[in-house]
Amino acid sequence: MAACDVELSAAIPLIKEAEAAVDCLNLNMINEFKSFSNLPNGIDHVVKAVLVLNKGEKKNFSWDNGKKMMKEPAKFINELKTFDKENISDFALKTMDEILAIDMYKFDIMNKKSSAGGSLCKWSIAVISYNKVYKFVKPLEDEAKEAKQTADTKLAELEIVRAKVADIMAKVQELKDQLAAAEAKKEMVEAKAAALNAKLDLANRLVGGLADENKRWKQSVIDLEKESLTMIGNAIISAAFVSYIGPFSQDFRKSLWSEEWLNDALSKKIPMTDGIDPLYILSNLSMQAGWKTEGLPADRVSLENAAIINSCSRYPLIIDPQLQGQTWIKGKEGSAMQIIQLS
């Protein structure tokens, strides 16, 4: 799972790079690109790459065929945005390897010849790079699923063992009843019964302890599996919250992260915790209670501001006309704080 997460994190920037390249395109750029009667040197490689990837073309790489592909610019741009980056044919991959081996097939070079050609060049490079990473990650994901299935099988076997232990315990109880009836017969039997009871007590405590541990282990496995995926989206939303949310009002903050950021992340299928709230990613109830004890107001905006301040890597600028933040900081730092006035 760890190796899979590392490779997946490497693939995310490639997806964003491909999306950014398409976002740079607009109808005017495509129309201007189509107006070329003769392509600048090297741009023909870009046209070939897009024909191979977007249309699966294998023979006709002419400029006329390229213009036909871009006949409807809006539809063409949408095709690039929705391109299936995970399933690229072997022919397309082989052809793209040949194109990528050309020294001049680079964004900076192509962008000088044509802004649309440069963006299409960057898009083709990004989707091929993503595909190669994806094909490495997919087997790791399959291995992870197989490992989970094995774990589930072992847990099922454990349930069978627990059932057998329950049967054994029932039989032991039956023996204890028989022992009680035989106590009157011999003192030696009484001694043995006492020893057996002591052993049974230890066994009961051991089984009980293992049962509690089993429940905790199961929950830990579930939590770790969820967190290994949701930490990606949680970290992105929390980092954006700390970096950008500070200057805005409560209503605009709520709208920005809950409607704009979360919907954007969900549309990109970035995994995150259901019902995520950045305030409770950056802090917990215990921390918030401590802040209130130090003099922080109990309203949502003040708690968010405190979470941002505690999560910053640098000292933030605080605009504090009511001196609420100043009061909290003094209560938080206590006598260890040094106050400097510039006037």
Descriptive overview:
By secondary structure, the protein is an all-alpha fold. The protein has helices at 2-23, 27-34, 43-55, 63-69, 73-81, 90-100, 107-113, 115-182, 187-244, 250-267, 278-282, 285-293, 300-311, 324-333. α7 (107-113) runs antiparallel to α8. The mean pLDDT is 82.
Number of helices: 14
Radius of gyration: 33 Å
Distance between the termini: 57 Å
Largest sheet descriptor: none
Spans of at least 5 consecutive residues whose pLDDT stays below 50 are: none
Overall shape: flat
**Estimated helix fraction:** over 70%
Oligomer: single chain
What number is the mean pLDDT?
A: 82
Q: What is the string of SSEs from the N terminus onward?
A: HHHHHHHHHHHHHH
Outline of this structure?
It is built from 14 helices and no strands.
List keywords for this structure.
Histone Acetyltransferase, Chain A; 3 domains; about 350 residues; mainly alpha; Rossmann fold
